[in-house]
């Protein structure tokens, strides 16, 4: 398997943080972060994307698995940004678990 360029995750997370700190009109991220339901709207999306990912795996559809996993990761990144949790903190948790 070729080495993946995971810097895209940092790039996406940076854009999410920019949208959080400097809201932009017609931004999907801003609509999630500023939704009247607050964090619950983001959690709904995480739940929805989780179910869609599970169904894609159950259906053994590789393209859907990739697409739905990307949607799930995106919404997880929005959730982390909403709660002021950095990717570095998640990476540190993985390092602790690896020991």
TrEMBL record:
<dbReference type="InterPro" id="IPR008179">
    <property type="entry name" value="HisE"/>
</dbReference>
<dbReference type="GO" id="GO:0005737">
    <property type="term" value="C:cytoplasm"/>
</dbReference>
<keyword id="KW-0378">Hydrolase</keyword>
<protein>
    <recommendedName>
        <fullName>Phosphoribosyl-ATP pyrophosphatase</fullName>
        <ecNumber>3.6.1.31</ecNumber>
    </recommendedName>
</protein>
<keyword id="KW-0028">Amino-acid biosynthesis</keyword>
<dbReference type="InterPro" id="IPR021130">
    <property type="entry name" value="PRib-ATP_PPHydrolase-like"/>
</dbReference>
<comment type="similarity">
    <text>Belongs to the PRA-PH family.</text>
</comment>
<keyword id="KW-0067">ATP-binding</keyword>
<dbReference type="Pfam" id="PF01503">
    <property type="entry name" value="PRA-PH"/>
</dbReference>
<dbReference type="GO" id="GO:0000105">
    <property type="term" value="P:L-histidine biosynthetic process"/>
</dbReference>
<dbReference type="GO" id="GO:0005524">
    <property type="term" value="F:ATP binding"/>
</dbReference>
<comment type="pathway">
    <text>Amino-acid biosynthesis; L-histidine biosynthesis; L-histidine from 5-phospho-alpha-D-ribose 1-diphosphate: step 2/9.</text>
</comment>
<keyword id="KW-0368">Histidine biosynthesis</keyword>
<dbReference type="GO" id="GO:0004636">
    <property type="term" value="F:phosphoribosyl-ATP diphosphatase activity"/>
</dbReference>
<keyword id="KW-0547">Nucleotide-binding</keyword>
<keyword id="KW-0963">Cytoplasm</keyword>
């Amino acid at each position: 398997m070729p080495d993946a360029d995971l810097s895209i995750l940092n790039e996406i997370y940076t854009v999410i943080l920019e949208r959080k700190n400097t809201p932009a009109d017609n931004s999907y991220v801003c609509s999630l972060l500023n939704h009247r339901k607050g964090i619950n709207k983001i959690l709904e999306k995480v739940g929805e994307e989780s179910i869609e990912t599970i169904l894609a795996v159950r259906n053994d559809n590789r393209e859907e698995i990739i697409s739905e996993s990307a949607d799930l990761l995106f919404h997880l990144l929005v959730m982390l940004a909403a709660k002021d949790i950095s990717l570095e903190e998640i990476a540190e948790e993985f390092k602790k678990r690896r020991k």
